[in-house]
Amino acid sequence: MNSTYEQLCRNLETLKLTQMQLHLDEVADFVTANRLSFSEGLLKLTSYEADFKAASAAKSMIKAGAFPHHKELKDFDFTFQSCINQQQIAEFGTLRFLEQNENIVFIHCIDSIGFGTDINTDKQSRHKVNL
């Protein structure tokens, strides 16, 4: 005789919900210990699957883009290019500008000798572009 738990595990496997299957015991224990509702437990369980699929999709896109290295803002060496405003770049990393329907344009110029010169903007010279 198949238990409900065994049937649930089989269904999760059939539906290829690997993260839900992996975290099933953990979430069931957590729900019981904290007296959570069915919906709260199901939300916690499905969040594992959704987060895993989102991370996998991001990795696939990076791989499909054929980037030579995976780098993030946290990997950037601000000491190498000291004129870059680290706090401003960190703020850009929050993507708040998207919520405000703004664009960001980074401009890098080459001076007459061939060395790179950054054009930094301050609040007075920044131009807001609404989409």
Labels describing this entry:
131 residues; mainly alpha; 2 domains; two-stranded antiparallel ribbon; 51% helix; 5% strand; elongated; IstB-like ATP binding protein; IstB_ATP-bd; ATP binding
How would you summarize what this structure contains?
This protein is mainly alpha-helical and 131 residues long.
Kindly describe this structure.
The protein has two domains: 4-64, no CATH class; 73-118, no CATH class. It has five helices and two strands; from the N terminus they run H-H-H-H-H-E-E. It has helices at residues 4-14, 18-34, 38-64, 86-93, 96-99, and strands at residues 108-110, 116-118. It has a two-stranded antiparallel sheet. Strand 1 and strand 2 form a beta hairpin. The radius of gyration is 24 Å and the shape is elongated.
- The tally of structural domains comes to 2
Indicate the mean pLDDT: 84
- Order of SSEs: HHHHHEE
Strand numbers in spatial order across the main sheet? 1-2
Question: Helix tally?
Answer: 5
Number of DSSP strand runs: 2
Question: What is the general shape?
Answer: elongated
Helix fraction by DSSP (H/I, runs of at least 4):
40-55%
SS-derived structural category: mainly alpha
**How large is the radius of gyration?**
24 Å
Strand content: under 5%
List segments where confidence is low: pLDDT < 50 over at least 5 consecutive residues: 116-125
**Biggest β-sheet: count, sense, barrel?**
2 strands, antiparallel
**How many angstroms separate the termini?**
61 Å
InterPro entries: IstB_ATP-bd (IPR002611)
Domain IstB-like ATP-binding: 12-107
Organism: [Clostridium] polysaccharolyticum
GO molecular function, one term: ATP binding
